[in-house]
Structure prediction request, 313 residues.
Amino acid sequence: MAGTSEPIESGKAVGGWLPAAAAAGASLLVGAGIVATRFVIEQSDPASLALLRYVIGFACLLPFVLAGPKPRFAGRDLLPIALLGIGQFGILIALLNYGLEQVPAARGALIFALFPLLTMILAALLRAEPLSLFKSLGVGLTILGVGLVLGEKLLAGGGPDPQAGWRGELAVFGAALCGAVCSVYYRPYLERYSTISVGAFAMLASVFFLAIPAAFEGFFDRLPGFTTGGWLAVLFIGLSSGAGYLLWLWALANTTPTKVAMFLAVSPITAALLGWLLLAEALSPLFLLGLHAVVLGLLVAHLRPRRRAPDSR
Prediction:
């Protein structure tokens, strides 16, 4: 893949809170999609559901691509952008699904909450984003907040295969690392091409990739047997994936990868709250404390140290 660009904090990022609002919106949609997935997952196989999700997501993006200027990708950029889409929507989802079969969902969610920490470290190593005290403290607070939101679920027993628990934990960690790598490496292509073009091409690449495991599940042998509610849930998951992906990429194009990745802490909060409202799932007694920790972490990470006024002499 091409190297990362110059640190965004030294250049032309969009000012104000617009990138943060876009990242927050994307994470809210991710959380809502998690709840919809829990509702419909028993009616489908994992790869087949993921394929349907991103086929619908791509279909939502396609009209905007066709209505705008024709994207002209350089030949050398086609494979890296495709690999980013496959990594984010194919490999990441596969590792996460495998991991969650081996470890409890709460433990997996906490491990996946390391996503922004890994993004911050990787971005600093590649000199795509400077480290700062505020961002480091903010990342730590959001991870703590996710742990508090999950509460006593973290103390639950092992997953379906306790002997393979370490493999599941490693798979979830690999999913978080894969997401961090994609978050950092998207930026050069978002500087060269429009967000909608990069998003549509990357998602299309993931559709072709996911068609392979979906075929082994028998996706192309029969029509999906969803109920009416199941089809509505799948449609919502697909629409939220397309909209959320565009918001995510736009935020990555206009602020640092760490600040975008941190908003993933909003997803388990959204999922827990909607699960309580719609699926009658219990909320942790520490939910409000965790929510405050996440919000505080996001605010701290967006603080800027005061610059000393230049000497008048």
Residues 5-14 have pLDDT under 50 and may be disordered. The chain has 13 helices and no strands. The longest helix spans residues 75-102.
